[in-house]
Amino acid sequence: MPGTKSHRFAAIMAGGKGTRFWPESTARRPKQLLDLLGTQRSLLRQSYERALGIVPPENVIVVTGQSIADDVRRDLPEVDASNVLVEPAARNTAPCVGWAAVHVSARDPDGVMAVLPADHYIRSVDSFHEVMRSALARAERAGTVVTIGIRPTRPETGYGYIEGGEVVEGDVLTALRFVEKPDRLTAEHYLMDGNFYWNAGIFNFTAGRILEDFRAYMPDLAAGLDRIGEGIRRGDRARLAGIVEDVYSRIAAISIDYGVMEKKPAGAIEVIPAEFGWSDLGSWGAIYEHLPCDSEGNVVRGGAIPALVDVKGCLLSTTRAGKVIAIAGVEDLVVIDTEEAVLVVPRSRDQDVRRLHDLVLKRKGE
Which of 41, 169, 199, 246 is the most buried (most CB within 10 A)? Predict the structure, then answer.
C-alpha cells in the first residue's frame, strides 16, 4: 500500500583491495568502481540499481573503506550520507555485515536485510529480484538465515559451495554445510551430485537474527557492535566516529562465512537454489567469458585497436582509447594495458595476477 513503511533493507558490501583486476584495478580504484563489461556503469552502480528492485532507495546501505569513500559517494549521489558506512580499516565481511546490521536495527528493530556484494555480475535482473523477494520474505517470516545458492554449470574450483538438504517449503532447502573452494575432482563430484550450489555470498536475515549469531559465535565482535549501537542511539556523530575507530582497531579480520555461517549447526541455515546468470567476476578470464568475441575468439575492450596475426582466444584491453595492440602467433593470452603498467598472462593462469600485483608493490617498495 502507498505510504506503508518497508522493513526491508539492502546492505551493499563495497570494500576491496583491487588486486584481481590489476593493473586496471588498484587499491584506490577497486573493481566495483570500474565498468569492466562496457555497460557505461560501474559494478557498484549496477548493484545499487538492482537493490532498488527489492527495497526502497532510502533503505539502501553501502559499507565501504576510507580510501574509496568519496568515489562511492560520487558514484551513488542518491544514497544519503548517513547510509554510507565508512570502515576505518579493512576487516573482512563479518564486521562489515555487523555494522550494517547495527545500523538497520537502530533504524528499525523489525528490519530484515539482504547482504549484497558490490562487484558481481547478474545477467537476469528480473530473476534475481524474484529470488531475493522470496528470500527476504522467508527470513522475515521465519527468522532464519537464508542464503542464495547458484546452480553450478561447471566443476568450478574458484568458488565455495553450499550443500543443500531437505525441502523446507517451496524452493527453500536446509543448508547442510558450507564447503571451501574444492579441488577439480571434488568439484566434478559436486556437479554430478546435484545437491551442491555455488556460494554467491548473498545472505538474508533480520538484523536481530544476525546480531544474535554474532553474540553466539563471535562474542568479541558482538561486544564491539554493542558499543557502536550505543553510540548510534546517543546520536552524537563525532563520538560515534571515535567509537567505530576504536572498535575497528581491536577486532579481527574474519569473513561472515568463517565467523558465523560455518559454525551454525546443520539445518540452521536455509538456501534457495537460483539461476540468474551469476558470476563474481573474479578474474580477467571471467571478463573474457562475458564479452563478445570475434571469429577467432578474441575479445577487445577499452577502445584498443587490434593488429593481430594468427591470434586466437585472447583478451586485449587498454585504458587509452585508440592504443594499438599488435600481436602475432599466440593463443589464450590476457593483455591489459594501462598508463601505469602492462599485464601479459595466459588466461589459464589469470589467478596469478594477485601474485604479480604483490610483486610489483614489493619492487616499488610500497
Answer: 199
- The answer to whether the predicted template modeling score (pTM) of the entire model surpasses 0.85 is yes
Sign of CA dihedral 268, 273, 277, 283: positive
CATH architecture entry for 8-279: Alpha-Beta Complex (3.90)
Integer Cα distance of 336 and 104 in angstroms: 41
Q: What is the DSSP letter of 310?
A: S
Task: Tell me which H or E stretch contains 112.
Answer: strand 112-117
Q: How far apart are CA 196 and CA 190, in angstroms?
A: 6
Q: Is the pLDDT of residue 267 over 90?
A: no
Q: Which element (helix H / strand E) includes 99?
A: helix 93-107
What sign results for the dihedral spanned by CA atoms 9, 15, 16, 21?
Answer: positive
pLDDT score, position 24: 95
Q: What is the pLDDT of residue 4?
A: 62
Domain ranges of the chain: 8-279, 284-364
Closest CA to 144 of 212, 222, 211, 206: 206
DSSP label at residue 194:
S
How does DSSP classify residue 165? E
169, exposed or middle or buried, with CB in 10 Å at 0-12, 13-18, 19+? Answer: exposed
Q: All 3 cell numbers of residue 248?
A: 575497528
Task: List Cβ neighbours of 355 (8 Å cut-off, separation of 6 or more).
Answer: none
Q: Is the dihedral of CA 243, 246, 250, 252 positive or negative?
A: positive
Task: Find the Cα–Cα–Cα–Cα dihedral 210, 215, 220, 224, rounded to 10°.
Answer: 60
Percent of the chain with pLDDT over 90: 87
User: For 98-149, how does the pLDDT look when each residue is reduced to its tens digit (9 = 90+)?
Assistant: 999 999 999 999 999 999 999 999 999 999 999 999 999 999 999 999 999 9
Whether omega for the bond prior to residue 117 falls within 30 degrees of 0, making it cis, is no
Reported as a pLDDT band with limits 50, 70 and 90, residue 27 is confident
- pLDDT above 90 for 229: yes
Cα 284 from Cα 356, distance rounded (Å): 14
